[in-house]
Each structure stands twice: as C-alpha cells, then as structure tokens.
Amino acid sequence: MKNNFEERKARRIENAKQMAQKNKTHSDQLHTKAKQMSAVIPFGQPILVGHHSEKSDRRFRDKIHNTFGKSFEAAEKADYYTEKVKTIENNTAISSDDPNAITKLKDKLNNLEKLQSFMKASNKCIRTKNKEAFLKLEYGTDETWLKLNTPDCLNRLGFPQYALTNNAANMRRIKERILQLEKLESQSTKEITVGEYRIVANVEANRVQIFFPEKPEQSMRNQLKQNGFRWTPSEGTWQRHLSSHAFRIAQEILQASIKIS
Question: What is the pTM of this model?
Fold first, then answer.
C-alpha cells in the first residue's frame, strides 16, 4: 500500500469526482422531470375536493413533490462529493501510508524547532528592547517586531506562553510518530494461524490483515467493524492500520470465535 500511496490518493479523488458528476446529473434529470410534471397542472389550479379526480390529483402532486425532494437530495450528495474532492486535494496531513512519511515528518519537525527557537529568541529581544538583535534573527522583520510589541487583550507583548507550549507539544507528538514509523520500518512481515484463519502483520501494506477461508458470519463482521477492521475487496482481507495493539486484538477476536464454536 505504501508503494502506491499517490495512486490510491488519485483514485480516491477521481472516484469522488465521478460521484459528484453522477449525482449532479441525476439531480438535474429529476428537477427537469418534476418541472415537466408540474407544467401539466394549470397555474393556480387547486385540488377539486369531492371531485372524482381528487385522489389521483393528490397522488400526482405528491409525486411531483417527492421528485423535487429526490432532486434536492441528489444535489446535496453532489455538493458533498465536490467538497470531498477539495478535502482530499488540499489535505496536508502526513499519512503513515505515505512512503515518504518519515522524511516529511522530519522536515515538519525541523520547521517547528526553528519556530520554537525564533519565538524564544524574539521574546528575549522584546524583554530587553533589542530590536537590532531581533532583526538579525532568521524570521525577524520590522513588521513582525511591530506586531510583537503591540499588546494583546491581556496587555502581553511577544509570543504568549501558550504558543510555545502548544508548539512544544506538537514537536513531541511528531517525534513520537517518527519513532513509531522507524520502529515499524525495522520490522518484517509476520504471519500466524489461528484455527483456519490467518493473521498477517503486513509491514509493506502498513496493515494488520485477517484472511478468512470464506465470508465470515454477520456477528463476526460486526465485531471486526467494532474493532476498526474494514473489508478491503482489492486485498481480499479484513484489515486496519498496523500496530501491536491491532495484532493482539485480531488474535483475541479469532481465539474467542474458536472457543464459542
């Protein structure tokens, strides 16, 4: 999975675009149909209560109403998939499935470390009123100096403490992710058998995979879903992101199933 990360991302974008166009076309067709149906009824023509046509007229008007409703629902789906395309395209989060994830995380960490150093040095310059030293900093500009010397709502100058605290927390989180990914990369794919089932810790795919000899029963499928496993037709397996916890959960589910049967 890691080796076709960009391909899968492009496929997700293309699928979302197709769904957006499909629903838009369906919405337009339904809207046109509803308008054509409405045109049959003379403008301002009320339902003739008590007339033999009353029931059929009500049914016809309900059908028009429902057709418009379905058109609006399809339009909303089209908007949803259009937004989904934008979300996927603009997503800057670093996925663990990205083969360049560690490099990207290290670059991000480096930028955060530079920011942390800049904020600390800036606050020191502001406390000592040393603009000359501030302008020698990598990101020091006259505009930034002016902003940092403008009191905030609590009459504070410089970068607030929470900015440094939050940035430091992000640095720790990214360091932990790097260590986790490096640990995973150092591992090799392993496989165990539980009864007639196979559990694979697939390092290349970055997934824990469960292979069944045939389609599992509904109760098993529900349990797998509740524990984060999803059926992947292209791989012919139930899987979730690779971790020691996921591998242990897979074993527990299958072992419990064998005991029950």
Answer: 0.60
The residue extents of the domains of the chain are 2-90, 101-185, 190-260
Per-residue pLDDT of the chain (261 residues; tens, 9 = 90+): 555 777 878 888 999 999 999 999 999 999 999 999 888 887 777 867 777 777 887 888 899 999 999 999 999 999 999 999 988 888 778 888 788 889 999 999 999 999 999 999 999 999 999 999 999 999 999 999 999 999 988 889 999 999 999 999 999 999 999 998 888 777 788 899 998 999 999 988 889 999 999 999 999 999 999 999 999 988 899 999 988 899 999 999 999 887 765
CA distance 16 to 206: 24
**Number of other residues whose CB lies within 10 A of the CB of residue 239:** 24
Query: How far apart are alpha carbons 197 and 214 in whole angstroms?
Result: 10
- Give whole-number Cα distances, 68 to 19, 27, 221, 258, in Å: 20, 9, 37, 52
| Alpha carbons 248 and 94: distance in angstroms, whole number | 26
